TrEMBL record, chain A:
Stored Pfam families: EII-Sor
Annotated transmembrane regions: 27-44, 51-70, 102-119, 139-164, 176-201, 221-240
Lineage: Bacteria, Bacillati, Bacillota, Bacilli, Bacillales
Domain of life from the UniProt record: Bacteria
Protein keywords: Cell membrane, Membrane, Phosphotransferase system, Sugar transport, Transmembrane, Transmembrane helix, Transport
Protein name per Swiss-Prot or TrEMBL: PTS mannose/fructose/sorbose/N-acetylgalactosamine transporter subunit IIC
Location within or outside the cell: Cell membrane
Membrane topology: Multi-pass membrane protein
PANTHER family from the UniProt entry: N-ACETYLGALACTOSAMINE PERMEASE II COMPONENT-RELATED, N-ACETYLGALACTOSAMINE PERMEASE IIC COMPONENT 1
Species: Sporolactobacillus shoreicorticis
UniProtKB/TrEMBL annotation, chain B:
Species whose genome carries this gene: Sporolactobacillus shoreicorticis
PROSITE patterns per record: PTS_EIID (PS51108)
Name of protein: PTS system mannose/fructose/sorbose family transporter subunit IID
PANTHER family per UniProt: N-ACETYLGALACTOSAMINE PERMEASE II COMPONENT-RELATED, TRANSPORT PROTEIN, PTS SYSTEM
TM annotation in the entry: 124-145, 151-170, 191-215, 235-256, 263-281
Keywords assigned: Membrane, Transmembrane, Transmembrane helix
InterPro entries linked to this entry: GatZ_KbaZ_carbometab (IPR050303), PTS_IID_man (IPR004704)
Length: 268, 286
């Protein structure tokens, strides 16, 4: 009976998290509240839940969605992993061990859903061609319902049918395995950092990268301190670029660069 | 430069909103929250855009049913940007739709052109600002609080949330009044690029710092050579503190840049972590 209730709670939070993830991208900054709500509904101390979730949040840190491409559904994986760890009274390392495969599985669910949405584009077009507002809106809400429902049902079944199996598995595994999990979880932020780097990288940014690393590694600055220096670098470059642009605009007519884009713009 | 200043003054003078305009912007603000739903491979946010704007188009083309359905059909086209940044594009596009309703000879290609032209730069700024900088910095600070179970960590997210809401609201509001020409100019003049570049530099610096603070490769191997204890971690620290986290991150970065899928890189990191621990090279520091 208890497991049934727990499965319902996780299913609800799964759909809840998916909704706020898409709605206004709210979950990007407020996703942490989901864990507190989850803990309260499961009857777990929120502080404990937050600590368990910390390991997951750290392991997935920096893995982000770019241009609608989702490498891993870290939100869903993290939520299910944290839920099962909380239900079984396990540590963050166990949460990560569950979160990693679930985050990959969830991408498959998303791709299937997106296939269906893609097929439906034609139907939306048909409704517009038929000037049928009602069916257009109905299909829109149906898609959202199926979207949220899919994640809720999978979470529900996963908790209901999987928890006991996972418990047996955890009881079976040797301590060295758990130790390795903790180590791997500590190494995983490297992947997120690399993804972020890849996204913002430009070879001319190497000095800033080294500076940021050195400030933290040698001067032991906390992240807030590094961020302030980062802001200083960003502002300096911004103002320098601004000066450069002014000079370029002024120099353009004298230099006779008649094909200069900026000149054309300012001569308008 | 004068022209630019004049344009700024003009924009300020135009910033009066009628009651119906205010109502429309408010409605659009709420409906644009749904832009992240129901993405498809072929149109991405195209259907969501049309759904969000439907009642607005209804009002704009209230006298012309043909034009209304033409707008519905036209706006189903491909659209994709950072949802938080879409307000600016939406405000501009709506003001152009109004022109289209008012004028007989209006080329609707201009609206499509505007949407296609702006979604790229907006995504560039939006992804860098929100994912590359705000989520990164706020997340890192929040993590240091979350580590000890301090529930205060939730508060930091509110800062990013506030920026999200402000960009959505004022983007829509000013986008609507500023006029396509002005924003187009801002994009072309390079101010947007300068802003993106500055944000990227903030991001790169912070990532450098976070590699040193967040990534952990704890080496516990200690061997005895000639009666002397050899502490491998101490040797690494002597070469450079956080040497292994740096090498690991750069290694991941190298493979990601080479085009290896992120999932594969992640799995390799997990396997390496396991192997090193089984070999008793790494472990948990108590």
């Amino acid at each position: 009976m208890l497991l049934l209730y727990q499965a319902l709670v996780v299913a609800f939070i799964a759909a809840w998290g998916k909704f706020w993830g898409a709605y206004g991208s709210f979950a990007q900054f407020l996703g942490g509240f989901d864990i507190v709500i989850l803990a309260l509904l499961l009857g777990v101390n929120p502080v404990q839940a937050v600590i368990v979730n910390y390991t997951v949040a750290l392991a997935f840190f920096g893995v982000m969605q770019i241009g609608g491409v989702l490498p891993q559904d870290t939100g869903y994986g993290g939520l299910i992993g944290t839920s099962i760890a909380l239900i079984l009274g396990q540590t963050g390392a166990v949460a990560v061990a569950i979160a990693v495969p679930i985050s990959m599985l969830a991408v498959i669910i998303w791709n299937l859903l997106k296939f269906w949405f893609t097929a439906n584009v034609e139907v939306f077009e048909k409704h517009v061609a038929n000037r049928d507002e009602k069916r257009f809106t109905r299909l829109w809400w149906l898609q959202i319902a199926v979207y949220l429902g899919s994640y809720a049902i999978i979470a529900f079944l996963g908790i209901l049918l999987g928890t006991n199996g996972i418990k047996a598995l955890i009881d079976m595994i040797p301590p060295i395995f758990l130790k390795a999990l903790v180590v791997a979880a500590g190494m995983l932020p490297a992947v997120g950092m690399a993804m972020l780097l890849k996204y913002v990288w430009n070879n001319s940014y190497i000095p800033y990268f080294i500076a940021g690393f050195a400030l933290a590694a040698y001067l032991k600055l906390p992240i807030m301190g590094v961020t302030l220096f980062a802001l200083v670098f960003g502002l300096i470059v911004f103002f320098l670029d601004q000066e450069l642009r002014k000079v370029r605009v002024k120099a353009a007519p004298a230099g006779g660069l008649s094909d200069n884009d900026e000149e054309g713009f300012f001569d308008e | 430069m004068n022209e630019e200043n004049n344009a700024a003054v003009n924009v300020k003078n135009q910033m009066n909103y009628t009651a119906s305009e205010k109502k429309m912007i408010k409605k659009l603000f709420w409906r644009m929250m749904f832009l992240g739903f129901n993405m498809s491979y072929t149109r991405q946010q195209g259907v969501a855009w049309t759904w969000a704007h439907r009642p607005i188009y209804r009002t704009i083309y209230k006298d012309n049913d043909d034009k209304y359905w033409e707008a519905m059909k036209r706006n189903l086209e491909f659209f994709n940007t950072t949802p938080n940044m879409a307000g600016i594009v939406s405000g501009l596009a709506v003001s152009m739709e109004q022109e289209n309703a008012r004028l007989k000879e209006f080329d609707t290609k201009a609206i499509s052109g505007l949407k296609i032209g702006l979604m790229g730069p907006m995504a560039g700024i939006g992804d860098t600002l929100f994912s590359g900088v705000l989520a990164l910095v706020i997340g890192a600070i929040a993590l240091s609080f979350q580590k000890t179970g301090n529930l205060l960590y939730l508060v930091f997210g509110l800062v990013g949330f506030a920026v999200n809401i402000l960009v959505r609201w004022y983007g829509l509001k000013y986008g609507y009044k500023m006029g396509a020409k002005y924003i187009q100019k801002a994009v072309e003049s390079g101010i947007m690029t300068m802003f993106t570049k500055a944000s990227a530099i903030v991001g790169v610096t912070v990532v450098g710092g976070m590699i040193a603070t967040l990534v952990k490769v704890p080496v516990v191997l200690k061997t005895k050579i000639n009666g002397q204890t050899l502490d491998l971690q101490a040797i690494f620290d002597q070469i450079m503190p956080c040497l292994l986290p740096l090498l690991l991150s750069l290694g991941c970065f190298y493979f990601l840049r080479k085009g290896t899928s992120p999932v594969r890189v992640l799995l390799v990191v997990v396997v390496v972590g396991f192997l090193l621990t089984f070999a008793q090279i790494t472990g948990t520091v108590s």
